[in-house]
Design a protein that fits this description.
There is one protein chain. By secondary structure, the protein is of the alpha/beta class. It folds into three domains: about 220 residues, Class I glutamine amidotransferase (GATase) domain (Rossmann fold, 3-Layer(aba) Sandwich), CATH 3.40.50.880; about 260 residues, Alpha-Beta Barrel (TIM Barrel); about 70 residues, Immunoglobulin-like (Sandwich). About 25% of the residues lie in helices and about 25% in strands. The protein has 18 helices and 31 strands. The strands form seven sheets. The protein has a nine-stranded mixed β-sheet. Strands 13, 14, 15, 22, 23 and 24 form a six-stranded parallel β-sheet that branches. It has a four-stranded antiparallel β-sheet with strand order 12-27-30-29. Strand 3, helix 6 and strand 4 form a beta-alpha-beta unit. The termini are far apart.
Length: about 625
């Protein structure tokens, strides 16, 4: 009898282990799979097919090198790249990026000579050196001092062509950590040997070099005393040691500096370059209007505001709290009148997204849940302070179910967590609940104004599946005095647009917010597009997965742009910037819709094609200057 009971218990434990994770985690993440135990480099290494000599190369010179952070920076910059361990293949390109490693980087003399010849012929190499690099003849770095106490990087003391897009003070000096933080991430001050290399950026306003440049022949070697994982990926996981300029400041470009620098280095290294733009179509800016509709908000005010926006050909995204029981909360809650308002918003062309059920302040500390939560039996209760019978999965899954059932014909693909909360499993819970995008984080939390794919479980080495659209401007910042004015919002729009970022403006249905929005839209900078968040997330996902190469054409001043498109590209405006203005373009790809204007090529629709080719004729091929600000 005892033996039988033991067997039954063991069987029950085995079934619990086998089935419980699969109840809510996305496919491939419920247990240790092949993807979990393989190197994060594998997928990037496998994507090296059909490469072009114009691609940048992430060169893995040591077994512990990981390409993930460098790949995210280059992708954000729109720079085409491949990942390889083959040095001989890498030096057939124009630009090489070497990741940071934990151990001393040494190379045989023969390989050092090959890299030296590559640079002397006009190539560019970027090393990341939080540890020791024994490559004095290449880098000119004789040593360094590691520290976790550095707070800032300053790019203004000495100039480099790669800093030409750092046009504002907020871009020329960035924080690595708050002064209140005792220790941040590791950096290394770089010590040049004599005049072999020159400092072009410094730590903390001191003489400690953060970036050294060595010129060899026609090319340059850059050595960074930091890891791109820490200055670019870490902020996207909201683990950046409070490196924001101010918690209430809307313009927070601390991580965006790096795509701007690598974009400029790439344009200097490749004579005839092309890159993916970070804005859709020919637009020079992108504004996404979002509103929350929570317990206590007026459905009537929401309907009137949505009608005004539609009358001005503007469509916004409404994040809806779906608490259909008052649960002790004040004001209107989700009922028949609320549902009628939501149907009216959808009929006007606005997008609906989920904003949890109870909007709990303790969202990130709730139990995970089972993924079996449904509207009929999910009944969390609150007394205004405590919350009972709620789970994170319930707060994500149930509002999507409610909205899609109560507003026929819509598909809810976006979500926003309450109070800017970012629990470690948020990306996987969102994906498992059927969401493709999220807007739970502020630009101050992630130090970027660009959309990005959330990393898995807030790690810094794994790509997730959900697009994050960080909030730039919020109406609910208690410490902000005086309140926002139109000039403040327009200033932020101009700042973010200059770096090809996206402005997400969040506000609740209040009379003063409606007046502010009307004033801003009447003075919106020319070329600024207004889009929905769902469409923008789909466009960004298409951009992330688009591959391309620019090939020589049959004659002078001609080239062929070959684009390899993902399914998400159908109907979205994927655009490219090229090194010279385009006189004419044509394509034989059936069903392809496109335009060429100045330096920009835009694909509007693919007609289902997964590969497109455009023949381009340029105005001038003579020594093109990079786009943007004149060189210093």
């Amino acid at each position: 009898m005892i033996r039988r009971a033991v067997l039954v218990s063991l069987l029950s434990l085995f079934l619990f282990w086998l089935l419980w994770p699969r109840a809510w985690l996305p496919s491939g993440a419920s247990a240790v799979t092949a993807l979990e135990i393989r190197s994060p480099n594998d997928e990037l290494l496998a994507d090296a097919r059909d490469f072009s000599a114009k691609d940048a190369v992430i060169l893995l010179l040591a077994p512990e090198h990981e390409a993930f952070a460098s790949a995210r920076v280059l992708r954000a910059a729109g720079v085409p790249f491949i990942v390889t361990r083959d040095l001989l293949s890498a030096i057939t390109h124009h630009m090489i990026v070497v990741p940071a490693g934990e151990h001393t980087l040494r190379l045989p003399a023969r390989d050092r000579a090959r890299l030296g010849a590559f640079v002397a012929g006009g190539g560019t190499i970027v090393f990341q050196a939080t540890g020791v690099i024994q490559l004095l003849d290449l880098t000119g770095v004789s040593g360094g001092e590691a520290s976790r106490r550095r707070r800032r990087i300053n790019f203004t003391q000495l100039s480099d062509d790669g800093f030409r897009y750092l046009t504002r003070p907020e871009l020329r000096e960035i924080r690595l950590a708050s002064d209140a933080i005792e220790e941040g991430f590791w950096t290394s001050s770089l010590r040049p040997r004599g005049h072999a290399a020159e400092p072009i950026a410094r730590f903390d306003g001191t003489r400690d070099a953060a970036i050294l440049r060595r010129r060899i022949g026609l090319g340059s070697v850059y050595t960074l005393g930091l890891d791109l994982r820490d200055v670019f990926v870490r902020p996207q996981t909201a683990r950046h040691f409070d490196a924001w300029s101010s918690p209430t400041e809307q313009f927070q470009p601390g991580a965006d500096v790096w795509p701007l620098i690598f974009r400029a280095w790439y344009e200097d290294a490749v004579p005839e370059w092309a890159r993916l733009r970070s804005l859709p179509g020919e637009s020079s800016g992108l504004l996404l209007l979002s509103h929350s509709l929570e317990s206590g908000d007026s459905p009537t005010a929401a309907r009137e505001w949505a009608a005004w926006e539609s009358s001005h050909s503007v469509h916004s995204t409404w994040f809806v709290q779906t608490n259909d029981s008052d649960g002790g909360q004040p004001g209107p809650f989700y009922d028949a009148a609320f549902t009628s308002t939501l149907r009216a918003l959808a009929a006007l062309g606005h997008e609906l997204a989920a904003h949890t059920v109870t909007h709990p302040e303790t969202f990130d500390s709730l139990p995970t849940g089972s993924a079996l939560e449904r509207r009929r039996d999910y009944r969390p209760m609150t007394d205004g302070g405590s919350l009972w019978d709620a789970t994170m999965m319930g707060e994500l899954r149930v509002p999507k179910e409610i909205l899609e059932k109560d507003v026929p014909g819509i598909k809810v693909l976006g979500s926003r967590a309450p109070f800017l909360q970012y629990p470690p499993l948020l990306d996987e819970m969102l994906a498992a609940s059927g969401y493709s995008w999220d807007s739970s984080l502020s630009s101050g939390q992630v130090l970027t104004h660009r959309p990005f794919l959330m990393t898995r479980r807030r790690t810094m080495t794994r790509e997730g599946r959900v697009v994050e659209l960080p909030m730039t401007i919020q109406d609910e910042v208690p410490s902000r005095r005086p309140p926002l004015e139109a000039a403040d919002v327009l200033r932020v729009i101009r700042q973010v647009s200059e770096e090809e970022g996206v402005v997400v403006w969040q506000s609740r249905p209040r009379a003063e917010n409606e007046r502010l929005e009307a004033s801003v839209l009447s003075e919106l900078p020319a070329g600024t597009a207004i889009g929905s968040m769902g469409e923008t997330a789909l466009w960004w996902l298409a951009r992330e997965r688009t591959r391309f190469r620019l090939e020589p054409g049959p004659a002078l001043k001609q080239a062929n742009l070959r684009v390899f498109l993902p399914p998400e590209a159908d109907g979205v405006k994927v655009s490219f910037e090229l090194y010279a203005p385009i006189r004419a373009c044509s394509s034989g790809t059936p069903g392809l819709s496109y335009s060429c204007q100045g330096h920009i090529v835009t694909l509007y629709g693919t007609g289902g094609a997964r590969e497109a080719a455009l023949a381009l004729q340029f105005e001038n091929l003579d020594a093109p200057e990079p786009r943007g600000v004149p060189r210093p």
